[in-house]
Write a structure and sequence with these properties.
Distance between the termini of chain A: 22 Å
Helix content of chain A: over 70%
Number of strands of chain A: 2
CATH class of the largest domain in chain B: Alpha Beta
Strand content of chain A: under 5%
Largest sheet of chain A: 2 strands, antiparallel
Number of helices of chain B: 11
CATH architecture of the largest domain in chain B: 3-Layer(aba) Sandwich
Largest interface: A-B, 47 and 55 residues
Structural class of chain B: alpha/beta
Shape of chain B: globular
Structural class of chain A: mainly alpha
Shape of chain A: globular
CATH topology of the largest domain in chain B: Rossmann fold
Order of helices and strands of chain A: EEHHHHHHHHHHH
Number of domains of chain A: 1
Largest sheet of chain B: 6 strands, mixed
Strand order of the largest sheet of chain B: 5-6-7-3-8-9
Oligomer: heterodimer
Number of domains of chain B: 2
Order of helices and strands of chain B: HEHEEHEEHHHEHEHEEHHEEEEEEEEEH
Helix content of chain B: 25-40%
Strand order of the largest sheet of chain A: 1-2
Number of helices of chain A: 11
Chain lengths: 288, 452
């Protein structure tokens, strides 16, 4: 806990719960998030530089997974191996675009936990705003997504997809998708950082989640249990809305989209406090 | 325990402490800090989950009972750190030094009690936290220092200083994975000290690097201290601690066993380790040092010019025979004619050259004050302090000697003396200690003697 007094910074590390003084806590968290912009940026550039300096293909690694999936599914569909139903957009484009969005979601879902784990070395040695690590991770994701946008733009041209002024709003909606993923990821992080079970089950959770999200198939409005599950999935309206915004389609799930954004904000607020309260206890278990 | 701590907090209710006007000299207070740990990992994780739950609903730590496999790593530790003061933290392995450092640095929460720090705190619990070995030295300076809390502009301002101190300018743009471990340590240390912290926590990190760099680090720390930075230091060498620290805290099983003036506390710790030779206790001087809490750094009152070992003939020497007389001569320059001084001469046995596991051992610690010599006031100018040893009783080995001079219980000067060898006075004599001796044959009568 900290508070400023004149020019001297005062730090208090006490046994009492940080939540005993919520007003102070929120002010402090807010100040930390604002104050850690530079550190976050520094950490993000450090990781990005290190990541791409070690590889020949460099940023092409970002393009390979969505292209591979799109090609695979397009071949599958044309040979009638799978039957995803009729999509308004050309199917290869549909899958490719949706897969990029899905990857953004999954990366932001896994982000908080992997970022914390990979920064274990600093976390157990230096006290600094932990939010910086999460923000740095989101910055990295935003950067990689930005590069993927080049590929998406190419795909728009190749498939002659119509665009409109709403296309410009799509990145904003994409940011909301990232917030939603980070919200879920941050809520899971405290348990996930203590017990490996969460990290181990993450890929199965992702697979199951993909199945109930209209990524490889179009959303439908039938009343079956599966269709209802898909509709109740908070990721569905966000992905559908991004797609519709980008392709100048009319928005079919706007209220649900707004609800999902609200959910993301509530989750993030809870998660930030949760993280704040649990990190010292997690660090203690990491280093004890 | 409290009467031993540097400052008692018994009268301050913890809840009020932070609102109280703080003595402007105090930069860090540790108030009744206790920490409970669990030895079993699975259990520890489960307790961790429970603690998170407790924290979220705002409950305080659970009661003082210990569950299965739990133990107190720290118990009711209280002391205070003043501006420009350096506290040495001593104790055997596992006594809670590192845990205390982690609580002070804010990495982990205490089970009870609190730590209040006024100012920027730089923990040197590991050098180069956040270094990425793929990236260059230059890039790592920026990330490391921003983790330590500096803005980019602040780093720009001290960047040259960091490079100069670390002496790695030739490798600045090479990846850190190509550095030697000494270079990484130098870079890490340079980053840490250039953050200009108010409080520094130094946990054994001085053990890295070559001797020359170590000395550079020590003098950099001394400079920081003289500039007003306070420190808490953990190091295995009492010699080094005595060079830098003015106070010490001695932990035994997580509790403060003793706290106060560095020489006295470290002496006591060494005695407990059975490293020092038991000296008769001088009650009066012990009480005097315990009472004196207002210790300030008083460098510049006196300088040591040299430390010489001389033989009976008064010639400088590096070899002394057991049983011979010798003396340590310490020519000094006195700058302050009002002060009274006392000197401490320590002798360490050095490891044999071929040994990699042996460490230097403190074998002799002599304090002129405790032997009744407090000298001064001395007139400004040169003076030579002489320690006469009428009979060298050290066993044959290689030794080194260090000298610390204090004025009013605070260190004013220190220095390393020469390394020297002690050899047997005769060949074919041996034993774990030196025995002064005389051989005689006594016969029954004078006549018989003549017959022999």
């Amino acid at each position: 806990m900290s508070l400023e007094s004149g020019h001297r910074e005062i730090w208090i590390n006490s046994s009492e719960s940080a939540l005993m003084r919520p007003k102070h806590l929120f002010r402090q968290i807010f100040r930390e998030i604002i104050g850690s912009r530079e550190l976050s940026f520094m950490l993000a550039t450090r990781d990005l530089k290190a990541q791409y300096r070690q590889s020949i293909l460099g940023i092409f690694w970002m393009f390979i997974p969505p292209i591979a999936t799109a090609v695979l599914l397009a071949v599958g569909k044309s040979n009638a191996l799978i039957n995803p139903g009729k999509t308004e957009l050309p199917y290869p484009f549909y899958v490719f675009f949706s897969m990029v969005l899905w990857e953004v979601f999954i990366s932001s879902l896994n982000g908080p936990m992997t970022a914390m784990t990979s920064n274990r070395g600093i976390l157990t040695k230096v006290r600094f705003p932990h939010a910086a690590i999460v923000i740095a991770d989101m910055t990295k994701l935003w950067f990689t997504t930005g590069i993927r946008l080049i590929l998406i733009a190419t795909a728009f041209v190749v498939f002659k997809i119509p665009i409109g002024w709403t296309t410009l709003l799509a990145p904003l909606a994409l940011f909301m998708l990232m917030l939603l993923g980070t919200g879920f990821g941050l809520l899971l992080a405290p348990i996930g950082l203590l017990y490996r079970d969460i990290a181990n089950s993450m890929q199965y959770i992702a697979l199951g989640w993909l199945a109930i999200t209209p990524v490889t198939y179009p959303p439908n409005n039938s009343g079956g249990i599966f269709a209802t599950t898909v509709r109740l999935n908070p990721v569905t309206p966000v992905i559908v809305t991004i797609r519709e915004l980008a392709t100048a389609h009319h928005l079919t799930m706007l209220p649900q989209f707004c609800a999902a954004v609200g959910l993301a904000i509530i989750m993030l607020s809870i998660a930030v406090v949760l993280l704040r309260a649990s990190m010292p206890l997690i660090i203690e278990r990491w280093s004890a | 325990m409290l009467e031993n701590s540097l400052e008692s907090h018994a009268t301050i209710p913890p809840a009020l402490a932070e609102e109280m006007p703080v003595n402007s000299d105090t930069v860090l207070t540790i108030q009744g800090v206790s920490k409970r740990f669990c030895r079993d990992l699975k259990r520890s994780l489960w307790y961790g989950l429970q603690d998170i739950g407790r924290e979220l609903v705002g409950l305080p730590s659970r009661g003082g009972d210990l569950k299965q496999n739990e133990f107190w790593a720290l118990q009711n530790v209280s002391f205070e750190l003043k501006k420009g003061s350096v506290i040495g933290l001593v104790g055997t392995n596992g006594c809670g030094k590192t845990t205390l450092m982690r609580v002070i640095s804010g990495l982990i929460k205490p089970t009870y009690g609190k730590v209040v720090a006024y100012g920027r705190l730089a923990p040197l619990l590991a050098l180069g936290a956040g270094f990425n070995t793929i990236l260059t030295g230059r890039e790592n300076i920026y990330t490391n220092m921003s983790v330590l809390g500096l803005t980019k502009d602040e780093i720009d301002a001290v960047f040259d200083e960091v490079v100069e101190f670390s002496e790695i300018d030739y490798a600045l743009d090479a990846p850190v994975q190509s550095y030697s471990s000494g270079m990484v340590a130098r870079l890490g240390f340079a980053c840490a000290i250039c953050t200009q912290p108010d409080i520094m926590l130094i946990d054994e990190v001085l053990a890295v690097g070559d001797l020359k760099f170590r000395e550079k680090c020590i003098s950099a720390l001394e400079k920081l201290r003289d500039g007003g930075t306070s420190m808490i230091m953990v190091h295995h060498s009492p010699d080094l601690l005595l060079t830098i620290c003015d106070r010490a805290v001695y932990l035994v099983k997580g509790e403060v066993e003793d706290a106060g003036e560095a020489t006295r506390v470290i002496d006591r710790y060494e005695r407990d380790l059975n490293l020092t030779i038991r000296q008769p206790k001088n009650r009066a001087s012990e009480n005097a040092s315990a009472l004196d809490d207002e210790s300030t750094q008083t460098r510049g009152l006196l300088d040591i010019e040299a430390i010489r070992l001389v033989n009976e003939a008064g010639e400088e020497t590096e070899v002394v025979s057991c049983g011979e007389a010798c003396a340590v001569e310490i020519p000094c320059v006195v700058h302050d004619p009002t002060q009274q001084f006392n000197a401490r001469v320590t002798v360490y046995r050095l490891p044999r050259a071929e040994s990699v596991t042996q460490q230097e051992v403190l074998v002799l610690s002599l304090n002129s004050g405790k032997d009744g010599l407090i000298f001064g006031p001395l007139s400004v100018g040169r003076a030579t302090l002489r320690l006469e040893l009428p009979l060298v009783a050290l066993v044959p080995a290689r030794y080194k000697v260090t000298v610390h001079i204090y004025a009013n219980k605070s260190l004013v000067a220190s220095g390393y003396g020469p390394k020297f060898d002690v050899i047997y006075d005769r060949e074919g004599v041996g034993g774990p200690f030196y025995q002064p001796r005389q051989w005689q044959v006594q016969l029954e009568g004078a006549a018989a003697s003549r017959d022999l």
